[in-house]
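fyi for ur records
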Amino acid sequence: MRETICSVGIDIGTSTTQLVFSRLTMGNRSAGSMIPRIEIVGKEIVYRSPIYFTPLCEEDRIDAGRLKEILKKEYAQAEIRSEDVKTGAVIITGETARMENAEEVLRAVSDMAGDFVVSTAGPDLESVLSAKGAGTDRLSRETGMVTANLDIGGGTSNIAVFERGELSGCACLDIGGRLIRIKDSRIESISPRLMKLLEHYRMNIRVGEMADIPELKRLCTILASQLAQALHKEALSPMHEKLYTNNGSMLPQKPAVEVVTYSGGVGACIYEEEKAPFRYGDIGILLAEAIREQPALSSLAVYRPSETIRATVVGAGMHTTNISGSTICCQSELLPLKNIPVLRLREEEEENSERLAAAIRSGIKLYGTDSGKLAIALSGKSSRTFSQIQRLAEVLMWGADDIIRRGGPLVAIVEEDIGKSLGNALKARIHNNCSVLCVDGIHAKGGDYVDIGEPLAGGAVVPVVVKTLILNVRE
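which gave:
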């Protein structure tokens, strides 16, 4: 059994906007008489748009009308209708995610992109998607070396580190090529994110003045050093912690990074030297040169990734979607469901019925149920036998009584392959008072959000996107 679906990735970045259409092929990887194990077995890009400058109507507002026109034009050029698109993501990244109408633009664009094209933002997700789009996770798995991808764009640098193909940490810093813009050899604008750094190092860079190349090179050398510090290859300077977006967390010191790949607009310039320093109207080329020459970074093995400037958009189109297990309990009229907050239960709570019910009730109060949406996520490792599954259904009913009384839906996400059995046990107890959806084979953490799409493969599985919806906060 094979089924092919169309996926779209749309990346609205600080400097550029682009999209790709991909073909995802699903297949059954289990032996003939075993329970089907349907997975994505093939990924192929079928259309790449030109790269557009992200349209702005003011310095802090995205021009949603022009943006939608660009996307409509590219859908037509690719000869793909929004109803043909079954999955994918609209990702808003970098400085653009801080603009005051960013969330409104995400909703508007995802509404026209396709029924199950999800809208999302957040530096951690961007770090992971750009690294996967660049192929850094695969490189780490194939070489056995700890590999970091630095996706350096117009407003931010997103870093993701992989060990044997598994993510071990990610971070995002306010370092990018368009933090200083240059027009007619003069400084046109400076991002507020850079001001404290400029003051700390007493740099003579001011709006309206002529672009002083030696001084801008000194700034870029400092920024390149900050990237080396983020990888723990240099001692941390006093300003380093202030460069993380939203006071974000640093990368763990272990495992130690051995290999780097670069992606993003500035990342692409690292691999190809450019003579004209202000060709793109910013400091991106100077920053790329400084990174290329930075001693600690150049001491690492450097690989050229499969994608550079398109890494995030490729990641959005090909690496956002998970496929559920084949033992699910699904009422198709419920789907698609979008932006469902996840209440994650700990494994030790699952082992005790009273603690589990209390944790569910407490979590429901914390999240609130006014929207009627909440996904209860658990491992299911303590509920593998028939009697254990029946007991788990009873406990879920006790704990989620408030959701059931409101008419639901009651949504459970389980890692173990017990979705169908658990869902049927719940439906037998709840009767028609509340709709039930049990999805298995998916890992989701507390604080995540999930989107669950319409059934695929003859109703055997559903597409699931696990994501973070939190936009960067403007300061």
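DSSP finds 15 helices and 22 strands in the chain. thats all i got for now
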